[in-house]
Amino acid sequence: MKLQQRIKDQFSDSVATKQAAxxxxxxxxxxxIRLMVASLRSGGKIMACGNGGSAADSQHFAAxxxxxxxxxxxxxxxxxxxxxxxxxxxxxNDYEYDQIFAKQVYALGRDGDVLLAISTxxxxxxxLAAMAAAHERGVRVVxxxxxxxxxxxxxxxxxxxxxCVPASRTARIQEVHLLTLHCLCDGIDELLLGDTQ
Length: 197
Known about the structure:
Layout: H1 2-41, E1 46-49, H2 53-66, E2 78-80, H3 85-94, H4 102-108, E3 114-118, H5 125-137, E4 140-146, H6 150-155, E5 161-165, H7 170-193
Parallel strand pairs: 1-2, 1-3, 3-4, 4-5
Helix pairs in contact: 1-7, 2-7, 4-5
């Protein structure tokens, strides 16, 4: 019975974290949706990066845009910078691991593109390097973080958007990250296909 109560407590904690995050994050998520739609409409693309679970989130997000989310539509330009093992390992081997995303942003990023930079702590050195590369290439950044936003929060410019989950537990932050990605996908589809402004 103790194990079942522990499971119920996990669900309750997750719900409470999501409700608290909704109050703080709804406005910046809407802003991020509008930014991404503007980029896509002008021929831009969305790049995404992160480590571990955040790498999986990057791939999940890119797949939802390239293929489809919940509505039928044409493919949207998105790429996860976490998927090409030859590129990742060659950069890490020849230079340093901190550059695995930045070098891709330098090569692929164009003015008007968007980088979705994901880190639960906000302190991932390779994601911070990708943000710096994005700024040099005229790519705007949407940072998806947690806790206090870490170093990524201070690396953002006035043109960037900070989506920071107001929680400290990594598991809860990751759960809100997934919901945020689904909100982004839903909002993008709604602005492209629906009537919401």
